[in-house]
Amino acid sequence: MAELTDNQKKVLSAIENGANITETISQNSGVAKGSITAVVNSLIKKGLVAKNDDATYVASNAEPATNPSSEEPEAVEQTDETTEVTVIEATAEQVAILIPYLKSEAAGEELKYALRAWEKNFKEDFRVVVIGDKEDWFSPEVEHIPHDPHLIKEDCGCPNPSMIRNPQADVTHKIFTAIAAGAIQGDFIISNDDIYLLGTTYREDIAALKAFGLLDKGGKSGGIYSQNVKRTAKALEENGLPIHRYGTHTPMLLEADKVSEIIEKYGALDKGYLLTSLYFNEAYPEARPIQVDGSIHDPILASVYRPNVEAQLLKSIFTKRKFLNCDSKGWISVKPHLEIAFPDPSRFEKQ
User: Fold this and answer.
1) 300 with 322: CB under 8 angstroms?
2) Distance between CA 158 and CA 156 in Å, rounded?
3) Engineered SS bond to 182: which of 76, 163, 301, 307, CB 3.0-4.6 Å?
4) DSSP category for residue 47
């Protein structure tokens, strides 16, 4: 039997002892209720748990397959308190691009133009999985997984912490849910709605390790992101690992099983961590990643965070850089140039 994570062991034990719905499994296992669906689905994939017709769960006597990738993948249903999703696997040749999406944080049509850029410039066979909110313009080519924001306890040291949305924990939960639901398997690409490919891009361009210095600072002092940076650095140092900051606002190539292992090891569903920094420092502790910063001198990445960037500078960026990202202010600057660079609807838009 494949080795199980601590949460998988707890949940499996609870089911073996008669807990058969999310609430009782959470109570009996001690695993957070919001994490139960993802963990149960990971056990279903291993053949250790089965789902009944009445949506209850039961332990299975079946051993997990020794080589699941060699078998024909099946649809896996994900059910939680708010959604029920059936994910149909695509061909093995396609690489999945996973985009966590929260519409309320979008300044405009960033996601639409990001997908146009992927279709025009990514020279691989790929599919798109969006987890989170859905846009009315999505075509059936977008595999959408509904997912409400994931709340965790505020890290305040107080006796009655509030439940808050920690953006990094929310994204981690979305990624874990997509993996557990079977939408993501093997190697996949994680990207954002505001990351754009500005020219011909290959898998190797994305796989190359890139870092933005070290996890020694970041975000407004005392803010959630700053706390997450410090928490991530501390966890890595306690494990004798480097502290490269791998969150570079560029697409990254990850491996699903390794991601799940990292999430479970660090408890990243219940605390805010910079997941890609945990992942790459764990997976490649001896690496010397390419350094990017998104500045005017960066040959790879352009980060646009002003609403009034000079048009000539942006024209040069669109000609020479590999990747572009922006925030809500930068969107005002880059939108006209994106409209020129990617005028044609992609297959991910309703025609």
Assistant:
1) yes
2) 5
3) 76
4) T
| Inside any domain, residue 350 | no
Tell me the CA end-to-end span of the chain in Å, nearest whole number: 48
Are 239 and 97 in the same domain? yes
Phi/psi for 97 (5° steps) reads: -105, 115
Question: Which residues is 324 bridged to in the sheet?
Answer: 196, 302
CA nearest neighbour of 12 among 2, 77, 80: 2
Query: Which tokens sit at 29?
Result: 């296992």
Domains: count for the chain: 2
Domain that holds residue 57: 1-66
In the three-class reduction of DSSP (H, G, I as helix; E, B as strand; rest coil), residue 316 is classed as: helix
**What does the pLDDT look like over 71-106, one tens digit per residue?**
433 333 333 433 444 444 455 578 999 999 999 999
Cβ–Cβ < 8 Å for 146, 82:
yes
Share of the chain above pLDDT 90, in %: 68
As a whole number of Å, the CA-based R_g of the chain is 21
Give the separation between CA 241 and CA 101, rounded to whole angstroms: 30
Q: What is the pLDDT of residues 289-313, one digit of tens each?
A: 999 999 999 999 999 999 999 999 9
Q: 3-state secondary structure string, 175-186?
A: HHHHHHCCCCCC
Residue 177 placed within a domain: yes
Tell me the CATH number at 115.
3.90.550
Q: Both 80 and 62 in a single domain?
A: no
Query: What is the residue-averaged pLDDT of the chain?
Result: 88
CATH of residue 62: 1.10.10.10
Q: Are residues 108 and 50 in the same domain?
A: no
Confidence (pTM) = 0.80
Cβ neighbours of 31 (radius 10 Å): 22
| Cα–Cα dist 108/189, whole Å | 23
Q: How many residues does the chain have?
A: 351
Q: Give the tokens for residue 126.
A: 């790929």
The residue assigned the tokens 């059910």 is 79
Q: Assign residue 28 a region: left if phi > 0, alpha if psi is -120 to 50, beta otherwise?
A: alpha
Checking if the pLDDT of 132 tops 50, the result is yes
